[in-house]
Design goal:
By secondary structure, this protein is of the alpha/beta class. The chain contains 14 helices and 15 strands.
Length: 399
Amino acid sequence: MDSRALIEIEEKYGAPNYHPLDVVIERAEGVWVWDVEGKKYMDCLAAYSAVNQGHCHPRIVRAMLDQAPVLALTSRAFRNNIYPLFTKEVCELLGFDLILPMNSGAEAVETAIKTARKWGYKVKGVAENQAEIIVCSGNFHGRTTTVISFSDDDIARRNYGPYTPGFKRVPFGDAKALEDAITEHTVAFLVEPIQGEAGVVVPPEGYLKCCAEICKSKNVLFVADEIQSGLGRTGTLLACEHEGVKPDMITIGKALSGGMYPVSAVLSRQEVLGVFEHGSHGSTYGGNPLGCAVAREALKVLVEEKLPQRAAELGEYFIKKLRAIASPHIDFVRGKGLWIGLVLKESAGGARRFCNALKDHGILAKDTHEHIIRFAPPLVITREEIDWAVEQIAAVMQD
Ligand SMILES: *Cc1c(COP(=O)(O)O)cnc(C)c1O
């Protein structure tokens, strides 16, 4: 079936909650994808950083094919032989005491919220039902009812009320605002180290460190949502490392499984994730042997192929080359590692038309918030591939 026929079927039967570019992908490898007509594109979104390791990484595919026919799911009513190894390896790699596995990123964030509240009541001694969590303006933490309750994105929130109480929003990048917002009921500050969905917004230098210190002095958990910023994307394993910050709790997902399978997790100290009683939280698929086998291999690939280092080096190269493009439409370029936001001028007429033009030049990139184009290719991209991409981007931006 050709693209047009497939798009017609999708538009007829699929709920309209996304507005995808009209490219129908049927195959992928590394940084490249092919549509059903056989046209090749460079993937500069990498499934929102879920495929940092590159599409269909052979080692991760192998891990999946090896585990699937042997044991895929036990549920955690019983133990399985892969989950323990997963817990040990992820905790040791990222430097935390305990891990709680879930599936989607939003579930990991929900779990972090539940953990922080329970910690607030059981450890900090907050009065029942008074726990408060501080979040940032422009945040994106997922799509569940509670998570969209503290979003300030009208499209993500509209007509989904009533909303979950217990959240307060402060401007992203303003540590003083956080300090002022903390009360005796505050249990956690939840923040993306770099805001991805907001358009790769990098906070002022020292912001995370300052926030972490404020949290520490006020006995508030500093919770970093590293679902998109983590696992190599910004040039370090976790984005908080850029400021030498060790969060009290993190959420990870996306690249945790290299795009093969949904796996997410919350990691923290004993005193924090240790608050759960048996039966007080869970997930049927969370910690399943298939997901754990895939995640173990996905993390080994990240480390052994030195993908964070690649992101640091090549990201700097990519950003430099983008900044050198002379175009009447570009306002500025920002980013960290291979996570780049190209911000257009108001007069450019929106990012969507440029993304469509980029598609015609063989580059798939995502428009974000009207005026921003995001470039976040798989971290296995080469210097030569970046050179090629910049040529295409320059041609489109100068048109
Ligand atoms: C993608 C993302 C989520 C949600 O992950 P899903 O797997 O889509 O539920 C949460 N937080 C951040 C920072 C994200 O980028």
